[in-house]
Amino acid sequence: MSTTKSPRLGHVAISVRSPDRVAAFYRDLLGLQITRQGGNPLTGHAVLLSGDPAREDHELALFSNRGAQHVAFRVATVDQLRSLYDRAKEHGLAIPYALDSSVAVGFFLRDPEDNAVEIYLARSRPGQDRPPLADPDEIDRLIRGSSGVQP
Q1: CATH 2.30.110.10 corresponds to the domain 8-144
Q2: DSSP the chain
Q3: How do residues 29-57 score in pLDDT, each as one tens digit?
């Protein structure tokens, strides 16, 4: 890998029956702030929380869809995102989908025990939320190309 800095833990996403009820628990007990609510076909209903929204959009994600559970690692640069993407492809890992959200650009893969892992780059300027990408060519264009991957 061409970068010297390892990705850092960005957020943890867990599945819950009632994201709103569980978000209230973390808000009231720990003082986490609800930063966004919504969802998409991959996550179901979602509530995102952060202890420091100015620094990190969300550190805990609550999803109603059990299949959306994952652990996410944040990279510091576009080059690091692309390098890790290329490394995953070189190792023959499937990239089932990628996301281009208002706050980040990233891709997903699975570890040897089938746990979902997200690798993402936070945006320095808010972008536009887009639906998840599943087509391999569109994922390549998003991560490798010039289709808007910016810090």
Answers
A1: no
A2: ---SSPPEEEEEEEE-S-HHHHHHHHHHHH-PEEEEEEEETTTEEEEEEES-TTT-S-SEEEESSGGG-EEEEEESSHHHHHHHHHHHHHTT-----EEE-SSEEEEEEE-TT--EEEEEEE-SS-----PPB--HHHHHHHHHSSSS---
A3: 999 999 999 988 888 999 999 999 998 99
